[in-house]
Design brief:
This protein is of the alpha/beta class. It has one domain (about 5-150, about 195-335): Rossmann fold, CATH 3.40.50. About 40% of the residues lie in helices and about 15% in strands. The chain has 14 helices and twelve strands. The chain has helices spanning about 10-25, 55-65, 85-90, 105-115, 120-135, 135-140, 170-180, 200-205, 225-230, 230-240, 260-265, 270-280, 300-305, 320-335; strands spanning about 5-10, 35-40, 50, 55, 140-145, 155-160, 165-170, 185-190, 210-215, 245, 290-295, 310-315. It has a seven-stranded parallel beta sheet with strand order 5-2-1-9-10-11-12, sandwiched between helices. The chain is globular. It starts with a strand and ends with a helix. The structure holds guanosine-5'-diphosphate and calcium ion.
């Protein structure tokens, strides 16, 4: 195998990608070439405009993580970050104050916004930013593609007693960062998704791959939005490459993040089996051939297999690079058989 395509959100996807690349480099993945290429199709439905700047949280998390610029403790934003600009904006009383824009991180958003203003599409802007973060380490072996160049935004309906409808709609980032996903998500609305066009290279990356991986990313607001871009689902159905996924739910919990709240809002049980069956087997109109669940969910293997997916239980906690590379190896093995 030479060409691997991964459909990624932010933190979960990025951590998986580090393990996958570690596995490739150290020849830990059976049948995968040492010079294998990885194409990341990243979710852009978390993107927002704030203080006049375009911020792309998932693209940046992948870029900083793979480029070793990420803050390892937080798992987002830049390491050795300072927050003077944020403090200064707050001193002016500028709203909103809940979104964390670090000083180093701001440079990325300034460059991105200037390029967008000059007329470059997000895909070209991302390529330019990746020349700093990815090219020095990976050359042209790792590509980062936004799922679409168009504006697509996830909004979440939350309860609001003061509103006549009893609810109000907030941007996904407001739900996650300001409300800390602590209120029920009553509905997920992805504005612009139905009319979006896949970004340049996205459909080909799926069609021409030797392997497609759905990493343990959020099934609703990360992988779910990528799958919702017209023609992406069709590309997955049609590709000759096997498609394998790794469960983001371990022992009925989302490890970290807010997948539980969002799965509940779309009526999917919070379990490794239910998420795999929600993606579904390609033989039955879904997008997967194989699904890995964690060892603690071994009892789910039978149910997933009965639903038409190759399934195995292996450790799925991304505790370090070797553990994560072992997950990637298990994913390759599951569908290479
Ligand atoms: P986000 O965009 O930053 O929310 O990141 P992703 O969508 O890529 O991934 C978030 C999801 O990763 C969370 O909802 C968790 O379910 C999952 N996750 C995080 N850490 C782990 C881990 O160590 N193992 C597994 N299996 N899933 C994880
Ligand atoms: Ca995200």
């Amino acid at each position: 195998m030479r060409d691997i395509t991964v459909l990624s959100g932010g933190m979960g996807g990025a951590r998986f990608l580090r393990g996958l690349l570690h596995g490739i480099e150290h020849r830990l993945l059976p049948g995968v070439a040492a010079d294998a290429r990885v194409t990341v199709v990243a979710n852009t439905a978390d993107d927002l405009w704030i203080h006049g700047l375009k911020v792309c949280p998932d693209l940046d998390t992948v870029m900083y993580t793979l480029g070793d610029g990420i803050d390892p403790g937080r798992g987002w934003g830049r390491r050795d970050e300072t927050w003077s600009t944020k403090d200064e904006l707050a001193a002016y009383g500028v709203e909103p104050t809940w979104f964390g824009l670090g000083d180093r991180d701001l440079a990325t958003h300034l460059v991105r916004t200037q390029m967008l203003d000059a007329g470059y599409p997000l895909s070209q802007v991302t390529e330019a930013l990746c020349r700093r973060w990815l090219t020095p380490t990976f050359g042209d072996r790792v590509r980062l593609l936004p799922m679409t160049d168009e504006r697509v935004e996830t909004h979440i309906a939350v309860p609001d007693a003061d509103s006549p409808s009893g609810r109000r709609v907030v941007h996904f980032q407001e739900y996650w960062v300001r409300l800390r996903a602590a209120v029920p998500a009553e509905a997920v609305v992805v504005v612009g998704l139905d009319d979006a066009t896949p970004g340049p290279g996205v459909v080909d990356a799926i069609t021409d791959a030797d392997l497609v991986v759905l990493p343990p990313s959020n099934p609703v607001v990360s992988v779910g939005t990528i799958l919702g871009v017209p023609r992406v689902r069709e590309a997955l159905t049609a590709t000759a490459a096997p498609v394998v996924g790794l469960s983001p739910i371990v022992g009925g919990s989302h490890v970290r993040g807010m997948a539980e709240q969002l799965l509940t809002s779309i009526g999917v049980e919070v379990s490794a089996a239910a998420v795999g069956l929600h993606y579904g087997p390609r033989s039955g109109g879904g997008v997967l051939d194989g699904w890995l669940v964690d060892e603690v969910d071994a009892a789910a293997v039978e149910r997933v297999a009965a639903g038409g997916l190759a399934c195995r239980a292996v450790p799925l906690m991304m505790t370090d690079l070797d553990a994560t590379a072992a997950m990637a190896a298990a994913a390759v093995e599951l569908v290479a058989r």
